[in-house]
Design a protein that fits this description.
The chain is built from 12 helices and 12 strands. By secondary structure, the protein is of the alpha/beta class. It folds into 2 domains: about 5-115 and about 345-355, 2-Layer Sandwich (Enolase-like, domain 1), CATH 3.30.390; about 120-335, TIM Barrel, CATH 3.20.20.120.
């Protein structure tokens, strides 16, 4: 089935309300609406495969200048070949990491619509529900974090991951206080958002180990595999590595070979779409490692259902009082999508449905 058009449609990305923060040094949520883009692959039978990204201007430029000319006329069923073609284009262009998987996600969406099945069934469904963990944004004080944690547990979440301030000593005190507050039976994780050097990563890692945290995620920028190996030799807590590193399974393989990975990150967003995410998961599985799915949204839900060696769905909690995602049930579970294809965030789907006839 030939691709007859490949376009990027601008869409409005509403500013989160209320606004939220990340660690010191990182921008928080935008204060005004922004422009995103939906990549649409249209085949000769009129079926559309879609993928969304919030970086509208960059995606629109790449589609019009690079991806469209290279892929129009190609066969949409050649998903593996087209995955490699995008990586060939990246050799010169050096596309942003989030753009590398958009074509692939749209092709999986198209394939699911062709056969009337959700993408996780095409990948091979492993489960039909998975527990969600509450992944916090950054709050102002220890007291507020403890209040948010109470709300999360009452709402049905079985685990909580901290995004904190990016101050190793202050974050260590928070991690200890949260463990004392929730007791020994609640799973806790910590995400450093790449805020530390090796020395502070070691200090904080030892505190997290003492507080029995499940994993220690992205303490440093992932440029140096050796630094992560040194960290793994100096702390006891399991490291979760490879979230934003380039190179998909090739780069993850280096983290694994260095001996510093207990878990690895996989995602459609940073690992070349669903195809790349599966490569990472299967690589990790061959070494008896877990491949935890990064972030929420439709692509993550499909991956969580299809990857055997993942344990949780990541659901952002960015407000106080908390407002959990609609996909997280009162029992804290996220269930397998049933609609054909991959799907888009609801607010984006509604915009396109107002323009494109149903069934397209």
């Amino acid at each position: 089935m030939r691709i007859v058009d490949l376009v990027a449609r601008p869409v409005v990305v509403p500013a989160p309300k209320p606004a939220f923060k990340w660690r010191d040094g990182l921008p928080g949520s935008p204060s005004t609406d922004t422009v995103g883009a939906v990549l649409e692959i249209v085949t000769e039978d009129g079926v559309r495969g879609r993928a969304f990204d919030p970086h509208g201007g960059i995606v629109i430029d790449l589609v019009e200048r690079l991806l469209g000319p290279a892929l129009i006329g190609r066969n949409a069923t050649d998903r593996e070949l087209l995955w490699h073609q995008v990586w060939e284009l990246d050799r010169i262009e050096e596309m942003p990491i989030y753009a590398l998987g958009l074509v692939d996600v749209a092709l999986w969406d198209w394939a699911g619509k062709q056969v009337g099945q959700p993408a996780h069934q095409l990948m091979g469904t492993f489960r039909h529900a998975i527990p969600a963990y509450a992944s916090t944004s950054t709050f102002d004080s220890v007291a507020e974090y403890l209040d948010v944690a109470d709300q999360c547990l009452e709402r049905g979440f079985s685990a909580i991951k901290l995004h904190a301030w990016g101050d190793a000593r202050r974050d260590a005190k928070l991690a200890s206080a949260l463990r004392d507050h929730v007791g020994p039976d609640v799973e806790l994780m910590y995400d450093g958002s790449a805020g530390f050097d090796l020395a502070d990563s070691i200090y904080l890692g030892r505190a997290l180990s003492a507080a029995d945290y499940r994993w220690y995620e992205e303490p440093m920028r992932e440029f140096s595999v050796t630094a992560h190996r040194w960290l793994s030799e100096r702390v006891d807590i399991p490291l979760l590595v490879g979230e934003t590193s380039d190179g998909v399974h090739h780069n993850i393989a280096d983290f694994i070979a260095a001996g510093c990975a207990t878990h690895v990150r996989t995602s459609a967003r940073y690992k070349g779409g669903l195809t790349g995410a599966l490569r990472v998961a299967h690589l990790a599985d061959s070494f008896m490692l877990r491949a935890e799915v990064h972030g929420g949204g439709p692509e993550a839900r499909h991956l969580c259902m299809a990857i055997a060696n993942t344990t949780y769905y990541e659901s952002l909690v960015t407000s106080n009082p908390i407002e959990p995602e609609a996909c997280v049930g009162p029992d804290g579970l996220v269930h397998a999508p049933v609609e054909p294809g991959v799907g888009l965030p609801d607010v984006i789907e509604e915009q396109l449905d107002a323009e494109v006839p149903a069934g397209s």
